[in-house]
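Hey, resending since the last one bounced:
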Amino acid sequence: MFADIRGTRIYFDIDGAGLVRSGDRMIERPAAFLVHGGPGIDHVGARGGSAALRDHMQLVFFDQRGHGRSDREPIDRCTLDETVEDMEALRRHLGLGPIISIGGSYGGMVAMAHAARYPDSVSRLVLFATAAHKGLIDRARAIVAARGSEEQVQMFDRLTSATLDTDAKVEAYFRVMGPLYSRGFDPASPVGSSGRAIYSHEISRRAFGPGGFMQSFDLRGELRNITAPTLILAGRHDFICAPEFSEELHALIGNSVLRIFEDSSHLMAADAPADFTDAIVNFVREPELV
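The structure tokens again:
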């Protein structure tokens, strides 16, 4: 399905019913936006581990501007700020009230910025394996140097020097770096597989390369504007959004709780699937955040 918003066409998909039978009456499930990571990859990765959430909320996936099945756009408009505005426009297009917003990695950056700029549009916020500022790049580089192979060190340098100049090279990046993203990396698993994804090397290069917005963004000054109860999840072994960035988020976002999965890296839905989904479901069910 497509939504014509803000001068472009955004692809979105919905998983699960919004209205379900409960005994002799119908009840409405809350709508949840699952915001995909990247930049430079479509929403397919955000589907990993989402099946267990479908029984508790209606899931909305979308390909960010210029990504996947959404319309191609000038690269200079495929930014975090533009995606935040698209996300709010899509919420309104779908006629939704406040949503549950669930974002991981780059999707978490989009979700936290949206919740800060449109606080009345978000009822609950879930941020996992993410960070609020550019410091994640240098920290990740240091972790890869300490833990990674020579090939992984070289591959990370290619990401941040804008030399992954084809979609095939971006796919190769995820294949080589997979064991750092997930402690039990399995390229054939629904979460670990990158073969079904649609890549955009142009967006990735523009975002992560010299002068790109991933090398300069800083959302920390906005986080005090978030009013939604917030769940922050981190993996102890995450190399690209190390857990100290989640601790920082917890300190900056009022009414937030933090949980660190000790045996997980970046892909929590692969490394700790039951704990990951249970944490989100229990958080959404809670009438108040304590």
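The chain has a mean pLDDT of 92.

Sorry for the duplicate.
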